């Protein structure tokens, strides 16, 4: 899919440095009734592809089973749901960026990045850090994929952080992203926000080199 011609929006660079992570049950019925046919049963729709409520709930349960993860520190269940939706939508955008730029990230590259992390971690164990941030091994690999895509993109194009953010925002607009209002909305912050407009901000997360994401450590430089 090639980018469409449209006016470019200006995005505050500070959004790239934000850390990101449901409406009340009584409001869920009202929110669901406001969804179109594509959103019924879906937590989010990205370019026509549905990420279902069931899939989201399964991911929440999987993270809650991680030893050391405290969903309260992640903004509660509703805040963590927004965080997971943000990760999912961003990952889809990063994959489209890779497709557009012919960037291919291999499993071997991801394995190498994980090995570098492990060599820098106490006892070579990433488990506690991942669990604290609600990352399974699978979701962490997805986050690393996103970061490696950004590294390759900036290496090829020389784009700075603001340019990377703008490219992601533009791609997101082309993908017709819809979020079930039960969980919030998607916007130029590259994150799912609640009805008040605040961005989910887990207390135990560190800084992030990619717009809107919260992987525990930043990906090591490619070698």
Overall description:
The chain has seven helices and five strands. The chain is mainly alpha-helical. The strands form two sheets. It has a three-stranded antiparallel sheet. A hairpin with a 2-residue loop joins strand 1 (42-46) and strand 2 (49-52). The longest helix has 25 residues, at 76-100. Helix 2 packs across helix 3, helix 3 (76-100) packs across helix 7 (161-174) and helix 4 (107-120) packs across helix 6 (137-157). The chain is 45% helix and 7% strand. It has helices at 25-33, 53-64, 76-100, 107-120, 127-132, 137-157, 161-174, and strands at residues 42-46, 49-52, 178-179, 185-186, 192-193.
Determine the structural class based on helices, strands and strand pairing. mainly alpha
CA distance, first residue to last residue: 30 Å
E-strand count: 5
Per CATH, what is the topology? Triger factor/SurA peptide-binding fold
Largest sheet composition: 3 strands, antiparallel
Oligomer: single chain
Helical stretch count?
7
How much helix, percentage-wise, in residues? Answer: 40-55%
Low-confidence stretches: 1-38, 197-214, 216-223
Count of discrete structural domains: 1
Shape by Cα distribution? globular
CATH class: Mainly Alpha
Order of helices and strands: HEEHHHHHHEEE
Question: What is the CATH architecture term?
Answer: Orthogonal Bundle
**Kindly state the mean pLDDT as a whole number?**
78
Rg over CA atoms: 17 Å
Task: Determine the strand fraction and express it as a percent band.
Answer: 5-15%
Q: Give the neighbour order of strands across the main sheet.
A: 2-1-3
């Amino acid at each position: 899919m090639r980018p469409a011609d449209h006016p470019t929006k200006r995005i505050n660079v500070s959004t790239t440095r934000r850390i990101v992570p449901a409406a009340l049950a009584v409001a869920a019925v009202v929110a669901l009734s406001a969804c179109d046919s594509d959103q019924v049963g879906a937590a989010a729709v990205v370019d026509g592809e549905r990420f279902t409520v069931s899939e989201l709930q399964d991911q929440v349960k999987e993270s809650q089973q991680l030893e050391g993860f405290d969903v309260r520190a992640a903004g509660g269940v509703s805040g963590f749901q927004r965080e997971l939706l943000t990760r999912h939508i961003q990952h889809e955008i990063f994959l489209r960026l890779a497709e557009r730029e012919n960037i291919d990230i291999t499993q071997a590259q991801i394995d190498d990045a994980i090995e570098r992390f492990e060599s820098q971690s106490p006892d070579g164990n990433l488990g506690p850090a991942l669990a604290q941030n609600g990352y399974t091994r699978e979701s962490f690999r997805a986050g690393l994929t996103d970061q490696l895509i950004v590294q390759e993109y900036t290496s090829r194009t020389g784009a700075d952080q603001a340019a990377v953010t703008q490219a992601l925002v533009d791609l997101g607009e082309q993908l017709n992203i819809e979020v079930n209002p039960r969980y919030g909305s998607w916007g130029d912050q590259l994150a799912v926000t609640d009805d008040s407009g605040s961005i989910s901000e887990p207390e135990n997360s560190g800084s992030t080199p990619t717009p809107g994401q919260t992987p525990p450590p930043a990906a090591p430089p490619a070698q």
